[in-house]
Design a protein that fits this description.
Two copies of one chain form a homodimer.
Chain A lengths: L1 H15 L4 H8 L4 E5 L4 E3 L7 E7 L2 E6 L5 E7 L18 E4 L3 E7 H10 L1 H27 L2 H18 L3 E2 L2 E3 L4 H8 L3 H13 L4 E3 L2 E3 L3 H7 L14
Antiparallel strand pairs in A: 1-7, 2-6, 3-7, 4-5, 4-6, 8-9, 9-11, 10-11
The first copy, chain A, binds a DNA duplex (30 and 30 nucleotides) through helix 7.
Amino acid sequence: MAGTLSEALVRKISVSNRLDRADIETLQTLPIQRREFRAREIIVHDGQRATQCCLVAEGFVFRSKSTPDGQRQILSLHIPGEIPDLQSLHLGIMDHDLVALTSCTLGLIPHEALKRMNAVFPNIAAALWRETLIDASIFREWILNVGRRTGVQRMAHLLSEMRRRLEAVGRTSGETFRLPITQAELGDCLALSTVHVNRVLQELRGDGLIEIDRAAFNLLDRAGLEERGQFDPHYLHLTPSA
Amino acid sequence: MAGTLSEALVRKISVSNRLDRADIETLQTLPIQRREFRAREIIVHDGQRATQCCLVAEGFVFRSKSTPDGQRQILSLHIPGEIPDLQSLHLGIMDHDLVALTSCTLGLIPHEALKRMNAVFPNIAAALWRETLIDASIFREWILNVGRRTGVQRMAHLLSEMRRRLEAVGRTSGETFRLPITQAELGDCLALSTVHVNRVLQELRGDGLIEIDRAAFNLLDRAGLEERGQFDPHYLHLTPSA
DNA sequence: CGTGGATTTGAGAGAAATCAAATCATGTGG
DNA sequence: CCACATGATTTGATTTCTCTCAAATCCACG
């Protein structure tokens, strides 16, 4: 059981890091507690002290912050294999919420276990550090997206990014991927109103760039979509070398 | 000479981390090469491979990304004691520019030296990791700022944040701090046009919240400004414990 | 087959951008 | 010490993208 949980983790980390057999075996010995969450359930609250990290085994989660007047901004979307609150290992107090986008299966890993592992296996520690740095790189691109791109560009960029990240962990089939997210939530990601999200999607559909069937996004013209969103994947740091 | 460079570093890291005497002495042995940069000079380019990290000893630098059509978004402002490109230690290829906001003095630290130090002193490695995590936390708040706040709120928040960070390293006097930045650059930080920045500043001045004399910002009504900007410093993680 | 959430459509309002130009420093060289 | 160049700030007028408000439709599920 713990094996299947660590499987997604190893696969994800291997995308951006070179792990040797010993590293992988060590990761597989991590004590991971399986737990299910319902869609929209808050997993960890802003301000809360965290004592464990959450590995996404199945489903999607997101991180978000809200203003005092109740406006919500989604900061990142997370896919299987990722540890969205890995930062809590050294930043005990949460500065944002961690929320289940869909019903999902998480693997809870005690901080203690991770710290012990990092102390003994510097190569793994470096890989985890690197994961948090890629996380930060995606935040930087997110700032650019929200700050400097039009609604259509933002959406095109987000979809291009999600396709690329999902592909890296084998969660696409062709140019199609599953991402159960409402238009209101897309608006919270992109700092757009729900109404505008709807019109933006219509425009992308009208231009033959995408097709949406339920939770399935089909990038009919991937190159065109990436161009529209000014998408350049180098900020994802998807190869172990770079 | 290397002493004065590492001084700022030790002071800054000590704000958010508990360093013992041995840690401090180790940091002071780091080989650091002093180098001056002119205002607006690009220190490291997006796409470039970095082999050293830049410690800000004196002056200010910023990180930015640009869209293909030439729109610039400033991602972060950095003050003395910070290492704005610490991420390059594990993310060799830059995903953004590092630019001198003012003329400044940097201390260049070879990646090699940092990696050797991290391997031997896990406490320092954890502290540096934590610094990059705080960096990411500030990005998250930056996303919220740009995505969900009005122009006036964004400006109030940015000024509140800079005051708080500068205070932590002893670079304020009362409610006044020096930050030589143009209104166009403030616009690039906040995703606002220069014209709008100007009007926003007038509003804050008109409400008696701030006063600006050249590069000196005086927060006449700090509490009022923080309230206007919905500023809550917990995301800065300024105490070693949390 | 009703029900509530999600999507879609229409119309009007608003925050901020853009365009254009004036004013205000700041610093340089004659 | 002043004329001039350059960059920064300020002001005014207009435009535009996106939001808000409101309501209709669609759809999945019990």
